[in-house]
Amino acid sequence: MDLTPLYLSAKLSLVSTIILLVLAMPLAAVLVFVRFPGRFLVDSLVNLPLVLPPTVLGFYLLVIMGPDGPVGKFWAGFSGGSIVFTFGGIVLAAMVHSLPFAVQPLKTAYEKIDKRLLEMADVLGTSPVATFFRVILPNATSGIAASAILAFAHTMGEFGVILMVGGSIPGQTRVASIAIYEYVEAMRYREAAILSFILVAISYMILLIVNSLNKRSSQHA
Fold first, then answer.
1. Which of 19, 31, 182, 200, CA to CA, is 20 to 30 A from 38?
2. What's the rounded Cα separation, in Å, for the pair 55 and 91?
3. Cα–Cα dist 195/131, whole Å
4. Per residue of the chain (221 residues), what is the pLDDT tens digit?
């Protein structure tokens, strides 16, 4: 049996999660600690993928990333090629769709940080950037771990957005969820069952890890 779709799903999840964490950690800090007009609008925009149907989100991403879209034009000027129906394209799509799953655990962790630590850093004249790296991040390790795990798990099972933006190109964009769908369509139930069982096992393990992290966090609170 070809396990390439499973490998591709894992690769997609790992790459998108790493990039997403780098972006989500400061974004969540801004949403929690910085007061600015329209903050609720930004917060709602970040959480929009939670309520949008994946095909709707995928359609708009396809338009934006297509040859006539702003992202598509920028990418074409930078690389000379198209970003849709490529691995890079599904990485970007997965990041957008998994953004709230990365941001929410971080916001929860940041909100639990003792405000006296932040006040002390401010009194000592520590810059906001230094406070972020020296105070906020070291006290939000459980939230960072939960963010990474949830974003990884969500991307592993992604279907609609990936199909819209990447299609089903073997070895490039044909991830496990799409392979399962195609196996069922072709009535190849054995292959579909094997891939489905592996994804169920991975998802269950991830839930166990997240629950363990939450338990430890509540015990130390």
1. 19
2. 16
3. 44
4. 788 999 999 999 999 999 999 999 999 999 999 888 988 999 999 999 999 999 999 999 999 999 899 999 999 888 888 999 999 999 999 999 999 999 999 999 999 998 899 889 888 888 989 999 999 999 998 899 889 999 998 999 899 999 999 999 999 999 999 999 999 999 999 999 999 999 999 888 888 887 787 676 666 55
DSSP-based three-state secondary structure for 119: helix
- Left, alpha or beta for 85 (phi > 0: left; psi -120 to 50: alpha)? left
List the domain range (segments joined by +) for residue 192: 4-31+52-106+141-220
Question: Rounded CA gap, 133 and 89, in Å?
Answer: 31
Residue 167 lies in a domain: yes
* C-alpha–C-alpha distance, residues 152 and 73, integer Å: 29
Which CATH number do you get for residue 60?
Answer: 1.10.3720.10
pTM of the model: 0.90
Q: Does residue 136 lie in a domain region?
A: no
132, part of any domain:
no
Contact 35, 16 (CB under 8 A): no
Provide the domain count of the chain: 1
Summarize the chain as % helix, strand, coil (round to 5): 80, 0, 20
Q: What angle do CA 85, 155, 203 make, to 5 degrees?
A: 140
DSSP 66: S
Per the domain annotation, does 116 fall within a domain? no
Give dist(CA 24, CA 149) in Å, integer: 13
